[in-house]
């Protein structure tokens, strides 16, 4: 995920940020919102972008457009789903075709309208990708994975079984969860509240992080918040809870720790196996 060079999409931005009451009076609104959702699906519009200095920021206008899509929708029956389904009319499940270059294995997965999957991605069932999410080429979305609204996933990322990437639509300025290129996320990891996982990082199974979680870097003797450094290998840990009462009961608190950093010769599975021994 290099610095973003997306086109400004000025016309779309000006349209979807108009007052919803005004959009409701426009008979072309469903078509124009459809153009906006198409842009999200193709990746020409993204809910968050990386600046040249490496920081990530939310595109507030994109979130406004997604909220407008919900506000302008009717609640309708979605045909073809076993047992029936009811959802918003402008953001139904996407229809993935062979021309998209995506391997979507059958078995209960739903990719919602406005969720982008680059060609070369693989999605195993059952998983769910919400509006505004993006998954880059060569990435694997394993079974029982949630990619929440506006979450951004880079290229060649592995989201293992039951990974949860929290979504965020409001407040519109809040940065979503970001997973950069070549990251391995172990089974049942949870990432929430706009935490950023930098490139080539490895998260062992069961790691849970928010933007306020303290990560203890045992390699460099420091505390990290808000993001996982590039190449870091993070495993679940524990530290004693403070106070005599906690000590008397032997209570410990969850404390994710960085146990090592990947070098150029180690792949994710090798370095994770070594870290967990």
TrEMBL record:
The keyword Transit peptide does not apply. Coiled coil: none annotated. It is an enzyme of class 2 (transferase). Its EC number is 2.3.1.117. InterPro entries: Hexapep (IPR001451), Hexapep_transf_CS (IPR018357), THP_succinylTrfase_dom1 (IPR023180), THP_succinylTrfase_N_sf (IPR037133), Trimer_LpxA-like_sf (IPR011004). It comes from the Bacteria. Gene3D superfamilies: Hexapeptide repeat proteins, Tetrahydrodipicolinate-N-succinyltransferase, N-terminal domain. Residues 28-72 form the Tetrahydrodipicolinate-N-succinyltransferase chain A domain. It holds the Pfam family THDPS_N_2. One of its GO terms (molecular function) is 2,3,4,5-tetrahydropyridine-2,6-dicarboxylate N-succinyltransferase activity. Keywords: Acyltransferase, Repeat, Transferase. CDD domains: LbH_THP_succinylT. Belongs to the transferase hexapeptide repeat family. This is 2,3,4,5-tetrahydropyridine-2,6-dicarboxylate N-succinyltransferase. The lineage of its organism: Bacteria, Bacillati, Actinomycetota, Actinomycetes, Micrococcales.
